[in-house]
Amino acid sequence: MSADPARRRTDAAPATAEEAALRAEVEALRSEIRRLEALADRDVLTPLYNRRAFLRELNRAIAFCQRYEAPACLLYLDLDGFKGVNDAAGHAAGDEALKRVADLILANIRESDAAARLGGDEFGVLLLQAGVDEGQAKAAALGALIGEIDVGAGVLGGAFGVRAWEGHEDAEQWLAEADAAMFVRKRAR
């Protein structure tokens, strides 16, 4: 028994339409997954990475530095006066201040670098192909710019901890060392 060619064509048409619909649905789902993954990596308030994504970027930088013997530097920023902004002007003003700091950081780093809001009023900046001197210069420049931000309840400031990559194999440890360096600077003031 041979199949009727006309019947094959009519059976193929619905299969092709169904296949096209399934392909479109799969692409829509893939697009939604990409959107959700991007949301999972971003801070809820600012355009910066969140802590989880930043640690991933630090691990990538560590692998890059190990493979190519390249320098990198990590900056850890804790804002000064932020609690006063929230207390005097409210949390909406505090949120606006955090957004302004995030925008300032992004505008003053290279596309190859990474920045994150690590939590509260703490930020991290990863500088690739930069040593401690470049890191300290960038911290000073960012600190000066942050000091120009008028949030209505005063001016912000910040303390930076600068830690060059020195063979670190653990992103959390590298971040903790930069945090400790920031704390030392903050206490010295």
Query: Any idea of the CATH class of the largest domain?
Result: Alpha Beta
Compute the gyration radius: what is it? 24 Å
The assigned CATH architecture of the largest domain is 2-Layer Sandwich
Oligomer: single chain
User: How many DSSP H or I helices?
Assistant: 6
- Can you tell me the residue ranges where pLDDT is under 50 for at least 5 consecutive residues? none
The total tally of domains equals 2
Q: In whole angstroms, how far apart are the ends?
A: 93 Å
- The average pLDDT score comes to 90
Q: Biggest β-sheet, characterized?
A: 4 strands, antiparallel
Could you describe the 3D structure shown?
The chain is an alpha+beta fold and 189 residues long. It folds into 2 domains: 1-41; 51-188, Alpha-Beta Plaits, CATH 3.30.70.270. It has 6 helices and 4 strands. The chain has a 4-stranded antiparallel β-sheet, sandwiched between helices. Helix 3 packs antiparallel against helix 4 (91-107). The radius of gyration is 24 Å and the shape is flat. The N and C termini lie far apart (93 Å).
What's the SSE blueprint?
Blueprint: H1 5-41, H2 51-68, E1 72-80, H3 82-89, H4 91-107, E2 114-119, E3 122-128, H5 132-146, E4 157-164, H6 171-188
Antiparallel strand pairs: 1-3, 1-4, 2-3
Helix pairs in contact: 3-4
